[in-house]
Amino acid sequence: MSFVENQLLPDEEVVLLTHQHPVVLFWPILINIAAAAVVIALAFTLAIYWFLLFYFGPLLLLLWEVLVRHKEEYIITNRRIVKQQGVFSVSSFDASLDKINNILHEQSLWGRVLGYGNVRLETASEHGITVFHLIPDPVAFKNCIVQQRELYRSSQTGSLGSVSREDVPGMLDELARLRDRNVITAAEFDEKKKNLLARL
Questions:
Q1: Are 78 and 152 a contacting pair, CB within 8 Å?
Q2: Alpha helices by DSSP H, 2-160
Q3: What are the two backbone dihedrals, phi and then psi, of residue 76, each rounded to the nearest 5 degrees?
Q4: Interval 141-158: pLDDT, tens
Q5: Could you give the domains of the chain?
């Protein structure tokens, strides 16, 4: 079952859902092409069971890899990052946006040419570092995480009911960064700053 169908929390929305880049199917497709070449080359001398031996197996391998790729979902919501995988048994990892410290992406030469790469998350949770492998357009995936993290932190900053005096200086710095990155407007910054300073 898809993540979207059964795991969204109240008021949670999916911002981006993607799968691994189609490059993960390179070897199964290559094996199928080779098997098809053998079958065509020996078409007039092979019995039907040889056809099944040379081509049915590679075809099943390709279909399996397509299904595995489809079931491996990388999701960004307005609250967290989720990695879900598995065909028969399912496992998932998720990290709250406020627990993400650093976001890194890496691309090989072929990754830059074909448009895939890895995104690495460093979190404050017990999981430490989590890698999302072979993601299409890793830069866009990384930027989406950064944007949603800052929007989430901005929304949390707006809830001032539990803010202590010690939190105010750090929150002012965070608000200034959000304003400088155009995540919040200057007017919103001034209003939140005024509310925070009133607590000093």
A1: yes
A2: 3-6, 26-41, 48-51, 57-71, 109-114, 138-157
A3: -115, 125
A4: 999 999 998 888 777 655
A5: 14-136 (2.30.29)
